[in-house]
Structure formats: structure tokens, C-alpha cells
């Protein structure tokens, strides 16, 4: 990883608890519901005597708990529109054990953990990766400013827009920073910004934002909402149609920027319903296609990411380091194929596997038997061991020329012009 300036490294040393004002509430505990509740406890010394004691369902029941407005728990759940909190009545400890039972274990809802896990962890990021210093400074500064905005006497934009050329590692570099800072983010893509039902994508963004807030409140970890390829979802290209969902998504992001701690997903507002401020990071290739008021200064910080030659060499070197490729050899590869995106150099390594994979298929029994062999591998477990190819500069350069040839064919033929002859140049 690149050397980090002392000011930035200081933030890594901070515990998340030192940056956040965490609530002591936890939704899975009957004693600490998600919003401030005061539980009425009846005892023999109460004025109501035996009548007050009879009104208690049990010592563990939460049905009589009152919120800040004096309304009980069931009333609150009923008022929240589209409430899907089915785990309230299915998890042991939330209601009386008489209703939860022990025959299915502690939790009746066996898929609860899987349904609730919408955040992203980075166990697959094994090894040592390079983070470009300029990228690091911009992303870390934005995240930290949003977590300490109550200490700053200035307006802090909620959204950071990272834009630039295709395949330059915008998302991957951001994920590396999340891993380094111990952030558990909620990540969305442009494919989730459209739906056959009007308003669904906007509601989804608000739900994901609130989910990230719950990570901060309940787990004591920093979180972030990241939307990849935002311009592909809400950008305007040529004569493409503007849908209601496009407008609602833009409006939702603008509203989050203006009111980051008051986020409704359809339920009635409560004075105690305050959401933690969660920084938002969006990526894209061309932000000029996005509705201008959304990307204005004050709502969105913009960062143009174009790695220089030093960044490319360092990133590619870390990519090939485990293959025994030296930095001088990486420089030779980069100079052989200049003006290529970072994903091009990753594709080189992938292309070198083709020949060894074809040989492995022949060892299995050929293409005709591949499906049967691969699907029955658990029964027979007699597949030959696959040996990755030894990476050499010559093999990587050969793969590079093959990829460049394919790029040139696409640009020269432009078959789309033949299929759509009425298109303007």
C-alpha cells in the first residue's frame, strides 16, 4: 500500500467509536428497542395493586413497551407502511419463549441472518494491493468529514462522485479503502435504479441508506452507501426516455443530501426517528449526463480519477507480484501497451490461462464429457488437478497483442452502423 500521509493515517488509528455517536439501542433486544422506549414495570408497591400486576403479560414481554409518544410497540409496527419486520415475532428473546419455542432452535426464522446481510465484506481481497495516494486522500477525507461533520463549522457534501475513464479501477480502489478503514458498506449498482414499479428504486436507496445507518448504530462499525455506475442508471444519452423512476432516484439523492438524518421509507414520521449521517460514494464515467442540480457543489464533491504512469506501474506490479514478475518487467509491459486502461493489464493475465485450460479439458475427457465430469465431481472426485500456467513477460505480451487486435477490429468494422443505418454519425 502506498505511504499514507500522517494526517490521513491518523484517521486509521481512530476507533469507529471515537468518530461516531453511537446509540445504545439494539433492535434484537427487548430491553433496548430501536427507538427510545420506557417499559412500565408493575410491582406490589404500585398504586394499582393486584389489578396493575395482572395487566403484565410477563416479565419478558415487550408488547406493553411505550415509545416516546406513549404508544405501544404493536401500534408502532402497524403504523409503519410495508412493514416486513417478520423477525419481530420469530426470534427468541423478542417475545415470550412460549411463542418462540425451542423445537426449531433459538431462532424460528432460519434465514434471518441471510436476509439481513446486505452489507459487503471483503474476505476475497487477499494479498497486498496498491492504493494510489491521490485516490486515498480524496476518498478518506470525504468519509471522515461526514462522520465528524458535527465538529466542523462548514457545510459538508454528503455525496462524493468519482468519475473517469472506463476500467480505471474506481470501484476496486474504493473497496480497498473500505477494507483498510474497516468500513462495512452497502453497495448498489446501476441495474437497481430501474423497476417495473414506479418509486421502487428510490425507496430501495432510502432502505439501503437506513441499513448502513443501522450498521453504525447496532454494530459499532463505520458504513457507507456506494452506488456504482450512477450515470448508466440515471444519465441522459441521446434521445433516451426519462422515466418516473429516473426522476425519483435523482430526487431521492438530492433529498438525502439536503436531509441526511431524516430518511423516510413510507412510515409516519416520529420525532425520535433520526438516522445516522452516512457518506455516499458514487462512481461513473461521464457525470455531464446526470441532472445538473444533483451534482452541484454543496451536494456532491467531484473527483476525476485518471491514474498516471506511476500509479499504473505500481498497481500492475502488485497484480503480477505473486507470479514472480519484477517491476522492471511490468514497466516493459506497460510501455509496450501505452494508453490502456487498468483492466487491460488484468485481462492479459486472464488470457494467458486459455491454453492451460484447454489442455485441462482434454485431460478430463474432452468437451463432450466436460459437463458430466464437472457436475459429478462431488461423487467421483477424480478430476485431474489444474495447474496454473507460469507467467512470463513473453506470454503476457503475446496476450496483449491479441487483445489489442480485438479492440482494433471493433473500432474499424463498426457493425452497428450497418444494423442502424438511419443513425446520425
Would you give an account of this structure?
It is found in: Plastid, Chloroplast stroma. The protein has helices at 6-13, 16-19, 49-54, 73-79, 97-100, 112-116, 133-147, 170-181, 200-219, 230-234, 244-258, 309-320, 327-336, 342-351, 354-364, 367-375, 377-380, 393-413, 415-419, and strands at residues 159-163, 186-189, 225-228, 280-284, 300-304. It has a 5-stranded parallel beta sheet with strand order 2-3-4-1-5. The protein is built from 19 helices and 5 strands. It is globular and about 75 Å long. Mean pLDDT is 76; it is low at 1-49, 81-90 and 103-116. The protein is 43% helix and 5% strand. It folds into 2 domains: 114-304, P-loop containing nucleotide triphosphate hydrolases (Rossmann fold), CATH 3.40.50.300; 309-422, Orthogonal Bundle (Helicase, Ruva Protein, domain 3). With 425 residues, it is mainly alpha-helical.
Could you give the topology of this structure?
Elements: H1 6-13, H2 16-19, H3 49-54, H4 73-79, H5 97-100, H6 112-116, H7 133-147, E1 159-163, H8 170-181, E2 186-189, H9 200-219, E3 225-228, H10 230-234, H11 244-258, E4 280-284, E5 300-304, H12 309-320, H13 327-336, H14 342-351, H15 354-364, H16 367-375, H17 377-380, H18 393-413, H19 415-419
Helix pairs in contact: 9-11, 12-13, 12-14, 14-18
Protein name: Ribulose bisphosphate carboxylase/oxygenase activase, chloroplastic
GO cellular component, one term: chloroplast stroma
Subcellular location: Plastid, Chloroplast stroma
